[in-house]
Amino acid sequence: MESTERQQRILGETDAAAWVESGMTIAVGSPPPMALVRQLIRRGVSDLTVIDSGLSLDLLIAGGCVRKVVSYYAGGGFGVAVAPSFRRAVEQGEIEVWECEEGILATGLQAAAQALPFLPWRGGVGTSLPQVNPDLKLMTDPIGGETLIAVPPVKPDVTLLHAATADPYGNVQHIGGPGWLDLFLHRAADRTIVQVERIIANEDTRANPWATTIPSVDAVVRAPYGAHPYYSRGFYVQDQAHLQAYVSAANASARENRPDDLVHYLATYCRQPATHADYLERVGIKRLLSLYEY
Amino acid sequence: MESTERQQRILGETDAAAWVESGMTIAVGSPPPMALVRQLIRRGVSDLTVIDSGLSLDLLIAGGCVRKVVSYYAGGGFGVAVAPSFRRAVEQGEIEVWECEEGILATGLQAAAQALPFLPWRGGVGTSLPQVNPDLKLMTDPIGGETLIAVPPVKPDVTLLHAATADPYGNVQHIGGPGWLDLFLHRAADRTIVQVERIIANEDTRANPWATTIPSVDAVVRAPYGAHPYYSRGFYVQDQAHLQAYVSAANASARENRPDDLVHYLATYCRQPATHADYLERVGIKRLLSLYEY
Amino acid sequence: MSQDYTLQELMAVFIARDLRDGEVLRVGVAMPVVEAAVRLAHVMHGPNMELIFLGTRMNVAHLHSLPMPAFGWDRRVVRWAESYSDTGHRFDRVKDWHQHVFFIGGVQVDRFGNSNLIGVGPDYRRLRFRGPGPVGTATLTTHVGRYYIVLNSHTPRTLVERCDYVSAFGWGTGGADARRQLGLPGGGPKYCVTPLCVMDFAEGDKHMRLHALHPGVSQADVQAQTGFDLTTSQPVPTTPQPTPEELHVLRTRVDLAGLLRSTKGE
Amino acid sequence: MSQDYTLQELMAVFIARDLRDGEVLRVGVAMPVVEAAVRLAHVMHGPNMELIFLGTRMNVAHLHSLPMPAFGWDRRVVRWAESYSDTGHRFDRVKDWHQHVFFIGGVQVDRFGNSNLIGVGPDYRRLRFRGPGPVGTATLTTHVGRYYIVLNSHTPRTLVERCDYVSAFGWGTGGADARRQLGLPGGGPKYCVTPLCVMDFAEGDKHMRLHALHPGVSQADVQAQTGFDLTTSQPVPTTPQPTPEELHVLRTRVDLAGLLRSTKGE
Q1: Where are the alpha helices (DSSP H) in B95-156?
Q2: Most CB atoms within 10 A, among A165, A185, A278, C30?
Q3: Looking at the structure, do residues A229 and A166 belong to the same domain, yes or no?
Q4: Which residues of D touch A113 (CB under 8 A)?
């Protein structure tokens, strides 16, 4: 890669989403990078193994993209105990679950990041996790003889994140901190794509390098309001009404076998809009502007 | 601890240093918290096991405080290949060495922090480290059958750090990032004392919580110029002339068996000054002011 | 009954009183009773408590009001942060969690306080009911000094003889050394708080037993709604009622939107 | 000889030319030749290189000058940071180190490129010479794509038949699969650069061999100063001399204080 200038890493949303191919393992951060998630559904990517939680996972399942879930949490937050499409698909045996837990998942991601064939973890000893997920092996520690769980590497091909800002060279900064496992998901991945509310100058990065939460990601995608209907700290809050509409549609499909609303939701918001901007137009600027933080 | 107000964690340098008792294991961060280090020498603490590198380690050895060194690096930077008092004391068999390496040490500290009886690490496989340090055990990984090193927990009783600022409740912020292993040393320790250039208001902490590099340390000690003769990023650079004088004295003692200069250095800068302010007076304000960063 | 507080308020006050100053309180999502309880404790008697929500660590005792979020994720909670818990490395100082307190729910909870968030049904490959998954409960309950099981409903389907799957180990198959034998350093579950009662775990065998009955609830009511035999230490007292001050603080400084008041007590 | 560059400049230029754009260069303390080399490569042909010094990560190709520090620790280096390497978790993305390049010294280096920073003497409990310790070299040399051994002196005491202790595994006791057999993912040492010559490692047995002789140095000179038999692939070329442009950039944009010029070449 000889060149005379430093190369930028800004990519269009379509080009970036094209890094994800059917059959890959992907990880989705928090808040979920919904612009990219919707692109995957629009492209009809399938047979993914997905490391994700909550309703973005549910949407990917509803959209037909998922074969297997590396699962530690598939609730929907307040009022939605279990993500509806996830629940239906698992109960029907349509998707496979690699059952884990947050500490165990972090451990597996850390093992991948550190190029180790396993890392031990204590959380989960005594539970059913090693029975329902035979990849989690009980082991005896070679120093003190204690029982621990040996967690194998969990390695996404591509990790998709949403953040506040990044500079053209892939230095990402968050407002209000990165989500749950974002840093783990990045470190473990072969490649990381981050969609951001704003692209900032490299000089802005250097003004506060400690604020760089993730350096040198592989691609940066500009996606204002890109986490909608989720929150983006520093920019907007969650669109509860929109999420509720999705949950109602997914519930009707999953529990009452009335898929029309869900099909309509997927068509309207994921499949028909050709771009993220088209999606935002459907949501409407008045709705978007109403989601101010305070 | 019932109380009606949130309790501050600011401690005087003497009270804080008194947490370290002879025979304990201590860890010293980077830059070294020299005000506290000098207090330990002044108090005549002995038989310490010390996790430290560079010339602060050397000074503690010269001051007679050390029985054992958890050692990964005892050089002195440019021009000083091996810390002189460390070298002499090890060659004479006066102190014990727990030989390790930066990745291995970080792994042992992480094991302590995560309450695990060991963590595996690959760096060091094939080297002499497991032979010269039998606590490092070669192991076969239970998943892929690879050979790794099982590193036991490395657990300081007290970790001593230097940082730019902290608020009265122990929220520490650095300028220019924490040193080498500071975060690892903190997480592994039973208690952490941080000396700082400035104590800031809690409101200042909240203005940028991501800048909080270490939350809730056990004690905060105000020590302006407290890292002298080392640098403190955002405040002053290293005092090369002072360090050179120490190295010359330590070299004369170690290599030529002329201990007078070293005895004099220890008396002048570590034993006689009753307080850190007294030490600074001996160094002189003109010297201190000359150590500006740019 | 004519008390003017709700069951959720009663539960929150019971939990709040049991939290001690200086403790670190870790709260997950979607537990409004617990969200209220930790805030109430913090302003009533816990100026040195630290609250950990969603990876941020805060002390907000100096604020007049600590409103509960409508949902837990956005900046309206993290604005209070003093730091991010371990700078995004959320499991890095686990050894200190003996000072931490955690709260857990469950699709099923059994007589020894084991909890199941995985699902219900004999065949894991074909669950009758798929749960949300363990979240971080296996790790947290392994290490925290103690934790509280807090349930929204008390039925024989929730409180079962034996969990179909265990995602958080309480006292296993019983016995005071059940956790020590497995090398689990945390103190285990202390109370199970439900809309009917409070239960604790007997010292010797760690069997769940009645600790307090909510006002107007009888022992027989509880047993009828419980899937295992409840041992008791008679006589079972009534759950202490919230004081006017507690209710005042709860409603004017914590639960401003009235989330816990939305359904009145029976 | 009458060249107007120093040996240290020759070594720095040789290393700089061997570094490729886009690589991540990890430099420890107290290696002025390497500090100069990575800066020179960065401004000459590496606009996409990343430099990691002391836990900070930077790209400074846009700056006119990248002066070398008098000593490596204070803000005068970290002012250039774009980020801190893994936010203080310095070993968190080891898997990516195949794109990284590292530089190592040694109290002893043996014929298979193993390095010893521990000490010299048959009894570890009573070393004749105690070295500074391995720093992070065991971990870095295990994982980086390749590394360079850079020595300040070339003597039979430094370049030995067999290290008394190995703190960084090069090619062990030889053989192209020595590292793979141990499961070490990194590419191992590529060159050993000394004040006399450059050595590489033979494809088959990974024995150190002469790659280039610095101007004015003979093969016999090198063998006399080396504690093991040097295999060679005759004829051994001369180390390429720095171009005027390289020297100009080195002296006007990197080594402003003349650290590498302080002793002129023979």
Answers
A1: 102-113, 129-132
A2: A185
A3: yes
A4: 92-95
Per the confidence metrics, is the pTM higher than 0.90? Answer: yes
B161 with B192, same domain: the answer is: yes
Which stretch of A189-198, B149-158, D155-164, D230-239 has the lowest confidence by average pLDDT? D230-239
Q: Which residues pair with C201 in a beta bridge?
A: C208
Tokens of B139: 């192991």
Between helices B240-256 and B84-91, what is the axis angle to 10°? 20
Q: Which domain holds residue A131?
A: 118-152
Same structural domain, A189 and A46: yes
Helix, strand, coil percent content, chain B, rounded in steps of 5: 35, 20, 45
**Short-list D27, D36, D217, D196, CA closest to D105:** D27
- B106 and B140 co-located in one domain: no
Q: Do B78 and D70 touch, CB atoms closer than 8 A?
A: yes
Chains that contact C by 3+ CB pairs under 8 Å? A, B, D
Contact between C250 and C260 under an 8 Å Cβ cutoff? The reply is yes
Give the DSSP H or E segment for C77: helix C75-78
Co-location of B73 and B44 in the same domain = yes
Beta carbons of C130 and A91 less than 8 Å apart? yes
Whether A138 and A268 share a structural domain = no
Within 8 A by CB and 6+ apart from C194, the residues are: C151, C153, C154, C159
What gap in Å lies between CA B109 and CA B106, rounded to an integer? 5
Confirm whether B237 is domain-assigned: yes
- The answer to whether residues A192 and A218 touch, using CB atoms and an 8 Å cutoff, is yes
Asked if residue A96 and residue A165 are part of one domain, the reply reads: yes
Residues C162 and C141: their CA atoms lie apart, in Å, by 18
Q: Which of A103, A136, A152 is the endpoint of a domain? A: A152
Across the range D8-12, mean pLDDT stands at: 98
- pLDDT exceeds cutoff 90 at C111: yes
Domain that holds residue D237: 7-261
ipTM attached to this prediction:
0.96
Q: Which 8-state DSSP code applies to residue C138?
A: H
CA distance D14 to chain A (A): 18
Structure tokens of B231? 């640098």
Which residues of chain C have a CB within 8 Å of the CB of D87? 87-88
Which residue type sits at B109? L
Contacts for B241-244: CB closer than 8 Å, 24+ residues apart: B242/B283, B242/B287, B243/B55, B243/B76
- In total, how many domains does chain A have? 2
* Torsion sign over Cα A143, A147, A153, A154: negative
Query: What Rg value do the Cα atoms of chain D yield, rounded?
Result: 18
Token pair, residue D87, equals 């936010």
Evaluated on CA atoms B275, B278, B283, B284, the torsion sign reads positive
Distance CA D135, CA D31 (A): 13
Q: How far apart are CA C196 and CA A115, in angstroms?
A: 50
Report the CATH number at residue D254: 3.40.1080.10
In sequence order, the 6+-apart residues with CB closer than 8 A to the CB of D158 are: D106, D107, D108, D109, D151, D227
Of B112, B187, B209, which is closest to C81 when you measure between CB atoms? Answer: B209
Taking contacts as CB-CB distances below 8 angstroms, the residues of chain D near C87 are 87-88
Considering the domain architecture, whether residues A136 and A263 belong to the same structural domain is answered as no
Judge whether B212 and B171 are in contact, CB under 8 Å: yes
Subunits in contact with chain A (3 or more CB pairs closer than 8 Å):
B, C, D
**Domain tally for chain D?**
1
- Which residues of chain A fall below pLDDT 50? 1
Record the tokens describing residue A67, joined without a space.
Answer: 């074969």
Tell me the pairing of strands A66-71 and A48-51. parallel
Pairing of strands C108-110, C100-104: unpaired
Q: What is the pLDDT of residues C60-104, one digit of tens each?
A: 999 999 988 766 667 777 888 999 865 455 688 899 999 999 999
